[in-house]
Amino acid sequence: MDAKKEDLTCTLKLKFIKGQTVTGKDVYAMVTFPHVNPEVSDGDMYEVAALLGRLQERTIHAVVRVDSASLVAVG
Questions:
Q1: 68, 5 Cβ separation under 8 angstroms
Q2: Residue 17 in contact with residue 46, Cβ under 8 Å?
Q3: Global pTM?
Q4: pLDDT digits (tens, 9 = 90+) for 11-70
Q5: 3: domain range?
Q6: Strands of the sheet with 2-20, listed across from one edge
Q7: Alpha-carbon gap, residue 57 to 55, rounded angstroms
Q8: How many distinct structural domains can be found in the chain?
Q9: By CB distance 3.0 to 4.6 Å, which of 11, 32, 35, 38 could disulfide with 66?
Q10: For residues 15 and 48, is the Cβ–Cβ distance under 8 A?
């Protein structure tokens, strides 16, 4: 059976180092930017994430791209 993707969505998530516990482990905070155009290239998205990170006081630990789609049967 053939299937195709519909309802594509994309989200950008930035994981920041928020601080440290008393034992020295990093504590993280996640900032989510929903409704990103799914056709944006990975390179462009990373560049935007780096620019957004410069506007923050905290250090970026990770840049995460989440793509999602529904699969529907064709035919």
A1: no
A2: no
A3: 0.81
A4: 999 999 999 999 999 999 999 999 999 999 999 999 999 999 899 889 899 999 999 999
A5: 1-72
A6: 26-33, 2-20, 59-74
A7: 7
A8: 1
A9: 11
A10: no
φ and ψ of 28, to 5 deg = -110, 155
Distance, CA of 51 to CA of 45 (rounded, Å)? 10
Q: Which two tokens stand for residue 32?
A: 């989510």
Structure-token match 């290239």, residue found: 41
Residue position matching structure tokens 């440290």: 20
DSSP lists the bridge partners of residue 11 as 66
Sequence letter at residue 27: V
The backbone region for 50, taken as left when phi is positive above 0, alpha when psi lies in -120 to 50, beta otherwise, is alpha
Of 2, 12, 73, the closest CA to residue 40 belongs to: 12
